[in-house]
Structure formats: structure tokens, C-alpha cells
Specification:
By secondary structure, the protein is an alpha/beta fold. The protein has 20 helices and nine strands.
Length: about 500
């Protein structure tokens, strides 16, 4: 039996200290009190939590409060705010404020001190994330779920990386106008009407100008309206346009297509792929699922599959995702694909969770999710198309067309969204109103009623309305589309 060899215990190392520079904190605070112009410059670059010494954090917060009220921040004006501060008493009382201004050395390097204080705070945050990661990994008393722990760690790391981004988010008017001109140039080069990612539907592009970066778009509808089909069509059209533009040598920054991340919380990846293949091969999706196809049709299917083999369309069919896990997975995809994921689709919003447990009521949870989706769109600078259910109130009205008040469970969905679309098919409801089918010997009225219904059905069959109920960038209204239920395809309607 082999003998186990254990390593010799290492000699006790020197105790580790968290990264900090208390002297730099003191020098910077002194400089801020000597020259309040420096204080005005630095108060937005840091937060009290960035200071290692808690008293320094409280002094910084007090300076920030005074300056926000347009008051001088000096040892004299700050003194009343620290008379009862226990931490200050340990440092000699409010007289410590005057000691901070005793040396003017901080006046020269105050901005550099601020940068170092922030960087050291980030390092401490990293240490905290690392310790938490180790503690969670070592604790096997509850459910062992390493993937969830990895996602949680990635989320915490992202928060560290995103902290203190105020300064970077401020753009001069010149920078903002440059971005606006580039967007207009992109719309011009695409032939007009399209400054964002294409939907593949000319009539929809003309109405909304494409799907804009950092926008949250909500696509809602009652069951049976085809919202998943429309979202799949749009996502596929964007991915196919990207593939075509790359083949034509168009730079990625100028393409109106996009690599797509599709989060299908309801359908599996193969079901989603079946829908797309049915549409592209022209074979009924129902026949495809049940195997009722000929050899010739199978050849069409194989040809469509081969053509789409390199389609930049990535499907995540994990059920029960939390909003933070969704953020993590999108960021991971962005890293893998050189930050070229240009459209995120979520089917559907109500199947996400906030990740905060069962203490939260449903309205609060949906509000948290909708805010999280808007944050995702802004942080990743991509359009996010999220599908949503509608309340049953629609069914109780004479006119079944949805309204903003029908958005289910939370008004925050409407508030957070940049665009809200409703998909409505009148033929779905008309089909349900079919009267008794006439038979030989029936009353004349039965024949007349059915003939009237048949005329109504012929008028609306295969038509769908995309109702743009909210749009920050332009007018609301509706677009009429054609819908083929056999292959679940939406297309432009020439007769409108």
C-alpha cells in the first residue's frame, strides 16, 4: 500500500494587509479643504466607501455635502459635523481636521492621490470577491452548484469593474454629436430608414428605424398571436444580414445585421431551430416535427441546414435564469465573440427571476427584471428584445387590440422600455367566432351568418398588426404584416 506524502508545513508568513494608503487619503482630504475648487473636481470621482480609513470616508462625505449646498468646506465649517464622532475622537477629536490641512503637499498631487485611492479600493474589492468565492466553494453544507457560484463570482467581478464609471460616462457635446452623425451616416449608407439593427422587415424598419443600441424593446401579445415566431424571424433576419455583410466585405461597424444571443426560457434549442428551418425550407413546421415529409422535402431541409451552418445565432435554452445570470452569460458571449453580439432576445420576460428569493412579491420582482434588462441594454450597448405576456383583460373587451395597460404584472415594464410593440392577429379571434356550419335543410339565416363570417375570415386571414404603442425615438402607430402559420413566418404586406 502506497504511503501518502504530505508537504512539510511552511513557516508562518507575515500577516497580509489589505491594500491601502492612509497617508494619500489624508493628504487629498487636506488639499480639498485648502482649495475647494479641488474638492469640486474630486467629489464625483470617489465615494466614501473607497477610503480605507472610515473617518476619512466620513470626512469626504461631509465635504461633498457642503459643496453640494454651495458652502465652504474647511476645518471650521466641518467641525460641528464631527463633535460627536467616536472615530474622530480616537484621532484627537475635530482638531484632526486642522491637522489634515497642516501640510500643503497634497495640493500638488491631489488628483493622482484620488486615482490611487480608487485603484486600491478596487483591489480591496477584488480581495473581498476572492474570499467570498473561496468560502462558498468550501461550504458544501447546502446544494453544491459550482456553475451558479461561477456566475455569481462573474457578476461580482463585473460590479467591481463597473464601479466608479461616472467620469467615463460623461461625454462632451462634441463627442455626442460625432456619435449622432455616425448614426445618421449609417442610416444613409443602408439606403435610408435604418440607423439601428435591421428587423428584416422593411415596413417595420421604416416605422422604427431599426433596433437601436442600448434600447430595451418589449414585444407583447396574448398566446397564439405569434410573438415568439416574430421574435425568431427578426433575430434570424439580423443574423443572416450580418453573415451576408461579412461575406460582402462590409466592416462590422457598418453592418446593419448582428450576431444574436437568443435566450429561450420556454422552448428548447432544437424546437427553435426547427421553426427557423421550417421557415427557410418552406416546409410546414408541424409536418417537420411529425416526420411527414417526402425525400424531396428532406433534401430542401438538408440544403437549408447546410446554408445556415455558420449563422451567428447563439441559443441558450437554460430554464429559470435569474437576471444576474443573464447578464453574466451575455458578457461571456461578448468576450467569446470579440464584443460583436449585436442583439439579445429574451423569450420571455416573466420566466426570468430576480434571484432575490421568495420574499419579494411578483410586481416588485418584475420591476427588478425590467430594470435589469434595461441596464443590460445600456451596459452592453446592444438592443434587447424581450417578449412579455399580456393580462387576460384583453379577452374581456370587444376590441381585442392590446393597450399599454395590458402589460402583465407591472407598470415598470412600460416605464423601462424604449419601445413597446404588440402583435395582434384578428384572424385568430375571427376563427373562434365561427358560427354553426350550415347543413342541408338548415334555416336560411344559418347560411347567411356563415357566409358573412367566411367573408370576414377571408378579409383578415394571414394578416397581423404590429402595434408600436411606445417609441422614444419617433411616432407610434401600426404596421400590417403577412403571417404564414404553416411555417410561422412574418413578412411585409404589399397591400398595406
Amino acid at each position: 500500500m502506497a504511503t501518502l506524502a504530505f508537504p512539510t508545513p511552511a513557516a508562518a508568513a507575515e500577516p497580509m494587509h489589505l491594500p491601502r494608503n492612509v497617508e494619500a487619503e489624508a493628504a487629498m482630504l487636506g488639499a480639498m479643504m485648502i482649495d475647494n475648487r479641488l474638492a469640486d473636481d474630486l467629489v464625483d470621482r470617489l465615494e466614501p466607501a473607497h477610503f480605507y480609513e472610515p473617518v476619512h470616508g466620513r470626512i469626504f462625505a461631509a465635504i461633498k455635502t457642503l459643496r453640494s449646498n454651495d458652502m465652504l468646506a474647511t476645518p471650521v465649517t466641518l467641525r460641528p459635523m464631527f463633535e460627536a464622532d467616536e472615530g474622530m475622537k480616537e484621532l484627537g477629536g475635530p482638531a484632526y481636521l486642522a491637522q489634515l490641512t497642516g501640510s500643503g503637499a497634497g495640493l500638488i498631487g491631489a488628483r493622482q492621490f484620488a486615482t490611487q485611492i480608487y485603484d486600491l479600493a478596487m483591489l480591496r474589492a477584488l480581495v473581498s470577491v476572492g474570499r467570498t468565492l473561496v468560502e462558498r466553494a468550501m461550504d458544501t453544507s447546502e446544494e453544491v452548484n459550482p456553475r451558479a457560484q461561477i456566475e455569481a463570482a462573474e457578476e461580482e467581478l463585473y460590479k467591481v469593474a463597473g464601479d466608479g464609471g461616472v467620469e467615463n460616462s460623461i461625454k462632451s457635446f462634441a463627442q455626442a454629436t460625432t456619435m449622432a452623425v455616425k448614426m445618421a451616416e449609417r442610416a444613409l449608407n443602408s439606403g435610408g430608414n435604418l440607423s439601428g439593427v435591421t428587423t428584416g422587415l422593411d415596413s417595420v424598419n421604416a416605422k422604427i428605424g431599426g433596433m437601436h443600441h442600448s434600447d430595451l424593446m418589449i414585444l407583447a401579445g396574448r398566446p397564439g398571436m405569434g410573438k415568439t415566431s416574430l421574435a425568431t424571424n427578426i433575430a434570424f433576419n439580423a443574423a443572416r444580414r450580418w453573415m451576408r455583410d461579412m461575406a460582402d466585405g462590409i466592416p462590422p461597424s457598418e453592418s446593419v445585421g448582428a450576431k444574436v444571443a437568443f435566450f429561450s426560457l420556454e422552448m428548447s434549442a432544437d424546437q427553435l431551430a426547427t421553426r427557423i428551418l421550417a421557415e427557410q425550407s418552406g416546409i410546414s413546421s408541424e409536418n417537420l416535427r411529425m416526420g411527414k415529409i417526402s425525400k424531396a422535402e428532406f433534401g430542401q431541409l438538408a440544403a437549408a441546414a447546410a446554408e445556415l451552418e455558420n449563422l451567428p445565432f447563439f441559443i441558450d435554452d437554460t430554464g429559470g435564469l435569474s437576471i444576474s445570470a443573464l447578464h453574466t452569460r451575455v458578457r461571456r458571449l461578448q468576450r467569446r465573440h470579440n464584443n460583436q453580439i449585436g442583439l439579445v432576445v429574451v423569450d420571455y420576460l416573466q420566466l426570468l427571476t430576480s434571484g432575490k428569493g421568495s420574499n419579494e412579491n411578483r410586481v416588485q420582482e418584475i420591476s427588478e427584471i425590467s430594470r435589469g434588462l434595461k441596464t443590460l441594454a445600456k451596459d452592453m450597448n446592444v438592443p434587447v428584445l424581450a417578449l412579455s405576456q399580456l393580462s387576460r383583460a384583453v379577452e374581456s373587451r370587444e376590441d381585442k387590440r392590446p393597450m399599454l395597460s395590458d402589460l402583465r404584472e407591472s407598470g415598470s415594464i412600460e416605464q423601462d422600455a424604449d419601445m413597446v410593440w404588440f402583435v395582434f392577429r384578428e384572424d385568430y379571434y375571427t376563427a373562434q367566432r365561427e358560427p354553426k356550419r350550415p347543413m342541408e335543410g338548415d334555416d336560411t339565416k344559418i347560411f347567411e351568418d356563415h357566409a358573412k363570417w367566411a367573408a370576414d375570415m377571408e378579409r383578415v386571414y394571414g394578416l397581423a398588426e404590429l402595434i408600436v404603442a411606445k417609441q422614444r425615438h419617433g411616432a407610434t402607430g401600426k404596421v400590417v404584416l403577412k403571417f404564414d402559420p404553416t411555417i410561422t413566418r412574418f413578412s411585409d404586406y404589399a397591400g398595406y
